[in-house]
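Our working data are protein records whose layout never changes between entries. An example says more than a description, so a record of this kind follows.
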Amino acid sequence: MLSFKFTPLKTRFSVLAVALVCVAVTISHAQDSATTTQSSSDKLISKTVSRIVAKLMQDDHLSKRKLDDTMSSRAFDMFIKNLDPTKSYFLQSDIDEFSKWKTELDDQMLKGEFLAAFEVFDRFLQRVDERTDLAAELIDEDHDFTIDEEMITDPKLLSFAKNDAEARDNWRKRIKYSLLVLRGDANDEKADGDKDKTVKKNDDPKDRLRKRYSSFARRMHQIDAEDIVERYITAITTSFDPHTTYLSKGTFENFLIQMGLELEGIGATLSLMDEGYTVIKAIVPGGAAFTQGGLKVEDKIVAVGQGEEDGSRAYDKLFREHGGGFVECTGMKLDDVVGMIRGKAGTVVRLQVMSENESELHTVEIVREKIKLEDSAAHGEVFEEGSQKIGVIELPSFYANMGGGGGRSTTTDVKKILDDFNSKDVDALVLDLRMNGGGSLREAIDCTGLFIDIGPVVQVKDPYGTIQKLNDENGGTAWDKPMVVLTSKFSASASEILAGAIQDYGRGLVIGDTTTHGKGTVQSLVNLNQILFSRIKNPPNEFGALKITTQQFYRPNGDSTQKRGVLSDLVLPSISDNMDNIGEADLDYPVKFDRVPEASFAKLKMNRQDITSALRTKSKERIDSSDEFQKEIIKINKYIELKNEKTVSLNEAKFIARRKELNAEKEDEKTIEKQMLPSNDIERNFYLDEVLRITADYVEMLNQKQLSLR
């Protein structure tokens, strides 16, 4: 959850601002005087940014950690990982040489020095040039695709080459694998009736591979000092937690522009903060990726292509250089990746994507469209299960003032649906938050208040240990009948607050994946320019901004939602429950789970242990005898088997056979994903059927024990 703060965090910065504004003013005059002073001006800007970020991190980050040798060592590893995530470019001797900086980055940060950053990056460019020449040589070699050999695909098992000979062999396998993938792609395209006309303009795998590596090398040489500083400082900040990042002048400008633009494109939030790839960090409810499917959170975008009608005019030249085919985007600046993907509504963008723990790329075609706010709104349906009526509300996000000030909100929309359910004598409610990634904190609190009487919904702790209780202050409830909250690993932030409160109050059951996402922290966006130019109304953007973790959420019972999430009372089989790198706990250096004192609130008994235990037994019996669930479990087991594979065969016959098997499994996976996607028409499937049966059993057990709010 992100709150936007464009003012100094604390008054103590007034002294710091006075000291550093002099530097900023000097920079401004230096830039005006002559272009020859640009380099020295950049150094002064970087030094200023480094010092103020270091101070903010130590004073205002939630952890209150010092910037010390431990954080320096983490940052060193993060910077190397960001540059060379597949350990394909650096040699082990490079890493050994750089290790002299491992415990020095904290000292350099405090001094405003970037010796390590530029030394490491210069060596990286040297290795990129060497590997690009090597790749060109290896592409032209005759490879034997009949011998049995494998390439490691598990990042945890990869290591840097010990010498040039080992590097050459690693790259030989890498080229061989890439050629197999491209040849397989070409065969798949022919099987699909040559519908992919843009690739046919340049369909020779060797030519495509040459351009891929030469394009990557060219982009690496185009990275400027500002981008290096941004990557380096972000390596420092993400050593505190994965959500604290530095936005350089250019990145911050683009962020502000996007804040004021109409949402148009694929409707996904992208990030470069995961192993150097462009990664899908969130899918916007109501956007093209949300409604059309095909993409998942944590998917890596490896290349971008256009449809027959280009929708990204600013990048025409770049696409023409690649024969109208895919443009490799590994290592590309995030702004450029976003620029290629963004375009006019109605046009097609094609993404080559690698999903978690997959060794093969697959192509996703998405028709760009404007965000349809209606698709992110709450909507409900009534279903009959036996003699009972059960209402289902799908809630993709917690939104406020949809359509402008005083417009629709989550709470008003959900209350309207609940009023309708009450008028129809609905017996129980299922609130579906499986794809709800969060949103407005206030709406999460107010929406929770529809189901409980007055009392605390969430507790918030700041870096100084101050705990604030955020309460539902509206007496009474809009729904006093049994309820179930349906969750998954994609349920995050605000949705975890609601689910946790319902569980703590004993108000209802939580059903779904083993646990939710586990995002229990709050980030604030601090405009560094307003700290340094505190007396200027609209300060120039010289220094960028810092997105910093400043608060942590806690449930009414005192447990944090961070890392652990909200554990389900009943767990149902699902593929999302077995996906890695989706939950907060899978990220590097997440804030730890902890507790604060339990708040005072009136507890109910609608999720008693004897009830949940009996419901689990009945549900398991149904699942064990359900053909559909058993087929689903087989698919899930196949997914787990694939996920656990560490290598890929470079024998063409075995590669093709495995590719066919993988394509079939991907179709199964798409079916599973489609079943999870919310839509305006809530359709019954075997998963929802089981949820409805659990809910019906739940109502009967509550009635037998005479437990209710009434």
